[in-house]
Design a protein that fits this description.
The structure holds two protein chains of two kinds. Chain A is of the alpha+beta class. Chain A is built from eight helices and 15 strands. In chain A, a hairpin with a 2-residue loop joins strand 5 (93-102) and strand 6 (105-110). The radius of gyration of chain A is 19 Å and the shape is globular. In chain B, strands 3-4-5-2-1-7-6 form a seven-stranded mixed beta sheet. Classes of the chains: A alpha+beta, B mainly alpha.
C-alpha cells in the first residue's frame, strides 16, 4: 500500500472474500522479506464459538484495541492499518488530508471529520484525477514530495448514495451498519491510481473543503498564515517532526495556492476545482 | 515446538547482535531486519539501535526500508526528549518558592545528565523523587499551578497512597507528559526496604554530572537544555545508587506480558561501563548495596549483565556480590527463567514456556513487593476485574509510546 509493505493474516473467510474484491488491483508481494506492518484479523480463539462472533485486530501479534463484532471485520481492519501507519511512519510528515493528482501536481484537501473530504475525493478520482490518498498526506522530508498511498475510501452514511449516483462506475463494497462512524462502505481506488502508487507528486494547491447543506459554491483564497495553522494543527505527527515539520509545512504553504471551498453540490465543486487547476497551469 | 524454539533463538541472536555489535548490522539479510525491527520495537530498543548506527556512521549502509523505521524511532525519541525536558522546566517553574530539590530518576535522569543509556532511549513519563515529608506540599503546589490528577477508582487510589512508593501520576492540563512523584524506589510493602534518606544524602547535583555536549538524543536547539541542567535544584542519584535503582527496576517491576525489560538491563550495562571507568566506583558498589539492602538484585544484575551483554565486572566485585547469591537450586531456576523472560519471542511463534517464565517472574516480583496476604488480595482483585471483563484502561495516544 503506497510506500508500505503490509503483511495481512486473515484467518476469517468472510473477510477474505471482500478483500479479494476490494484489493483486486493491489500488487501481491511474493517475496518481500522486510515488511513494514505485520497485521492480522480473525477470531481471537478459533475453537470457541460465540453467540455474537467477534474478531480481533493484531499488529505484530498484539491486539491494541478491544475486539470488534465479526460483522465489522473490514472497517476494523482498515482502521487498524491506518492506526498502524499513523503511529509508526514517523519518518514522514503525515498530514490529515485527502490528496489527488493531475499532471504531476497534487491538490491537498486537509479537512476535519464530517467536512466531506472523502466524498469530494471519491468524486474527483472518478472525474479524471489520480487518487494519492484519502486519509494521509505523506510528505517526504527530503524534498517535500507527496507519496501516494491509495487505500480504500470509507464513505459514511448519506455519502454512499451520493457517490452511487455521481459515479455509478465506482466499485463500492458492502455496507457496514452501526459502526463507530455509522454506516460505512468502501470505495475501491481506481486501478490506475493503484498501478501508479510509486509515482510521487508535487503539492500544487491546498484546498480546505467544507460541505454545507444547500450552500452556494464558494471558492475563495485562504490567507497563507491561516492555511499554515490549519495544515499544522490537523496533522498526525506535526509535533513529532518538530522543526522539520515546520519547514515542510512552511514550504508547502508558500508554494501552493491556498483556497477554502464551501459546497453542497458535488458536480459544481468538481467543475470549480477543474477550472481552478487548469486555469493556473495552463 | 522445534520451529518456535528456532525462531526464538533467531530473535534472541538478532537483538543481542544489534545491541553488542551494531557494526555488523549493515550485512544483515532483509528477512533478519524484518524480525529485528519487530523485536527491537517490542523491547523499545529501536531508537537505541539507531543511535548506535548513527554514531558509527552506518545509517547509510542499512536497507532503505529498515532505515525508515530507524529514522521514525529517532524522531519519536527526539520529540519525547523535548517534551520531557520541557516538563522538567515547567515543574521547576511550578515549584518555585518550594524548598525542595527533586531527584530525577531513570530516563529523564540519564537524558539530562547526558549519560550513555540516554542515547536513543524512549521514555514517556518523567520520574522524580522527593522526600516523603515534602511530597504533600509538592503535590499541592503543582495541583495549584495547572497540574491535575487523573481520576482513579478508589482501589487504585488506595494502592498508590497506602502501598506504593509513588503518588498517583500528575499531568499538566495543557500537556500530555505524566509525572510520577516517588518518595522511595520500592513500594512500602516491599520486602527490600532501602532507606530513602541514604539515597537523598548521597544524591548529586545534576549540574555536576551533566555533560556539556550531552550524549543524549538530538538535543533541542539553543542553549536551553544546558541552562536547565544547571538549575541547582535538580539532582540525580549517586552513581552506585543509580545502578542499583536500574536493577531494582529490572528485577522488581515485571509485566506479565512483557516479562523482564531488556531495556533495564541495557541501562544497567551502560551505567556500569560508564561509572566503572572511575576507580572508586567498583569498590563502593557492593558495600553500598549492603547498606541499602539491595545485594540480591545487585548479584543478579551483575550476573545477567555479564552473561547476556558481556558487561565487564572486576573479579573482586563479583566475588563480593556472590555472597548474596541465592541457594543453588534457586539460582539454577533463575538462570533458566531470566533469559526466557528477558528476550522477546518471535511475535508469530510465541512459546508457552516463555509465557510461563514471564508469569513466574512477574509473580516473583510481586512476591517481593508485597506480603503474601496483600499479594493474594491484590492479584485476586485484578483477576476479579478480568472475570467481570472490566476493560484494561488504555489510552491510544499513550499506547503509541509502547510500540
Amino acid at each position: 500500500m503506497g510506500p508500505f509493505a503490509v503483511r495481512l493474516r486473515v484467518p476469517f473467510a468472510p473477510l477474505v472474500d471482500s478483500l479479494q474484491l476490494l484489493y483486486a488491483d493491489y500488487p501481491v508481494l511474493e517475496d518481500e522479506a522486510l515488511v513494514d506492518l505485520h497485521v492480522g484479523l480473525g477470531p481471537p480463539n478459533p475453537l470457541r464459538r460465540r453467540v455474537k462472533p467477534i474478531v480481533r485486530f493484531t499488529i505484530d501479534a498484539r491486539a491494541p484495541f478491544p475486539d470488534s463484532p465479526a460483522a465489522h471485520a473490514l472497517p476494523t481492519l482498515e482502521w487498524g492499518i491506518n492506526w498502524g501507519i499513523a503511529t509508526r511512519a514517523n519518518h514522514l510528515l503525515m498530514l490529515h488530508c485527502a490528496a489527488i493528482e493531475r499532471d504531476g501536481q497534487a491538490v491537498l484537501f486537509p479537512a476535519w471529520p464530517g467536512h466531506g473530504k472523502s466524498t469530494l475525493c471519491t468524486a474527483l478520482v472518478h472525474s479524471g484525477w489520480r487518487l494519492l490518498s484519502d486519509e494521509f498526506g505523506l510528505v517526504r522530508p527530503e524534498d517535500g514530495a507527496i507519496l501516494p498511498i491509495p487505500r480504500l475510501i470509507p464513505l459514511k452514511n448519506e455519502s454512499i448514495e451520493v457517490i452511487r449516483s455521481f459515479a455509478p462506475e465506482a466499485y463500492i463494497g458492502p455496507s457496514f451498519y452501526g459502526t463507530r462512524k455509522g454506516t460505512v462502505a468502501h470505495v475501491r481506488p481506481p486501478a490506475e491510481s493503484v498501478e501508479r502508487q510509486g509515482e510521487v507528486a508535487r503539492p500544487g494547491w491546498l484546498v480546505f473543503p467544507r460541505w454545507v447543506k444547500d450552500a452556494p459554491l464558494t471558492l475563495e483564497p485562504m490567507p497563507k498564515a491561516q492555511s499554515f495553522l490549519m495544515v499544522a494543527t490537523n496533522a498526525f505527527n506535526y509535533p513529532v517532526l518538530g522543526e522539520t515539520a515546520f519547514r515542510l509545512v512552511g514550504d508547502m504553504v508558500r508554494t501552493c495556492e491556498c483556497f477554502s471551498l464551501t459546497y453542497s453540490d458535488l458536480d459544481e465543486a468538481v467543475t470549480a476545482l477543474d477550472r481552478l487547476t487548469r486555469g493556473a497551469h495552463g | 515446538m522445534g520451529e518456535a524454539s528456532e525462531q526464538a533463538a533467531r530473535a534472541r541472536r538478532l537483538l543481542l547482535g544489534a545491541l553488542t555489535a551494531p557494526g555488523e548490522l549493515p550485512g544483515l539479510p532483509l528477512a533478519d531486519w524484518d524480525l529485528l525491527l519487530r523485536v527491537a520495537r517490542r523491547t523499545r530498543l529501536l531508537g537505541r539501535i539507531e543511535a548506535d548506527l548513527a554514531a558509527a556512521g552506518l545509517l547509510g549502509a542499512v536497507p532503505e526500508r529498515a532505515g525508515h523505521h530507524l529514522r521514525a524511532a529517532r524522531n519519536v525519541v527526539a520529540h519525547r526528549h523535548t517534551l520531557t525536558t520541557w516538563e522538567i522546566d515547567r515543574i521547576l517553574w511550578g515549584l518555585e518558592g518550594v524548598d525542595v530539590r527533586p531527584i530525577l530518576l531513570k530516563g529523564i535522569a540519564y537524558a539530562m545528565a547526558g549519560l550513555p543509556p540516554a542515547r536513543g532511549r524512549l521514555f514517556a513519563d518523567v520520574d522524580l523523587m522527593v522526600p516523603e515529608a515534602r511530597i504533600e506540599e509538592v503535590e499541592k503546589t503543582l495541583l495549584g499551578r495547572g497540574w491535575f490528577r487523573k481520576a482513579l477508582d478508589p482501589y487504585d487510589e488506595r494502592y498508590y497512597r497506602v502501598w506504593s512508593h509513588e503518588i498517583p501520576p500528575l499531568r499538566h492540563r495543557e500537556r500530555e507528559t505524566e509525572i510520577d512523584i516517588h518518595h522511595t524506589i520500592l513500594p512500602r510493602t516491599s520486602r527490600l526496604k532501602p532507606d530513602p534518606a541514604l539515597l537523598f544524602a548521597a544524591a548529586r547535583p545534576l549540574a555536576a554530572l551533566a555533560a556539556p555536549s550531552g550524549a543524549g538524543p538530538a538535543q533541542p536547539q539553543g542553549a536551553e537544555p544546558r541552562t536547565l541542567s544547571a538549575d541547582p535544584r535538580l539532582q540525580v542519584l549517586a552513581p552506585a545508587d543509580m545502578v542499583l535503582h536500574s536493577l531494582v527496576h529490572l528485577f522488581l517491576e515485571g509485566d506479565p506480558q512483557d516479562g523482564l525489560r531488556m531495556r533495564d538491563l541495557v541501562d544497567a550495562h551502560d551505567l556500569l561501563r560508564h561509572f566503572g571507568a572511575e576507580p572508586e566506583f567498583w569498590g563502593s558498589l557492593v558495600p553500598r548495596a549492603r547498606e541499602l539492602g539491595l545485594t540480591r538484585p545487585l548479584y543478579y544484575g551483575l550476573r545477567y549483565a555479564r552473561r547476556i551483554l558481556g558487561t565487564e565486572v572486576p573479579h573482586a566485585v563479583r566475588a563480593a556480590a556472590k555472597k548474596a547469591a541465592p541457594p543453588p537450586p534457586v539460582r539454577a531456576l533463575m538462570d533458566r527463567l531470566v533469559p526466557l523472560a528477558l528476550f522477546p519471542e518471535h511475535p508469530d511463534f510465541p512459546r508457552r514456556r516463555a509465557a510461563r517464565a514471564r508469569l513466574l517472574v512477574y509473580v516473583r516480583s510481586h512476591w517481593l513487593r508485597m506480603p503474601p496476604l496483600l499479594l493474594a488480595r491484590h492479584l485476586g482483585y485484578k483477576a476479579w476485574l478480568r472475570v467481570r471483563r472490566v476493560p484494561r484502561k488504555t489510552e491510544l495516544t499513550r499506547l503509541e509510546l509502547k510500540q
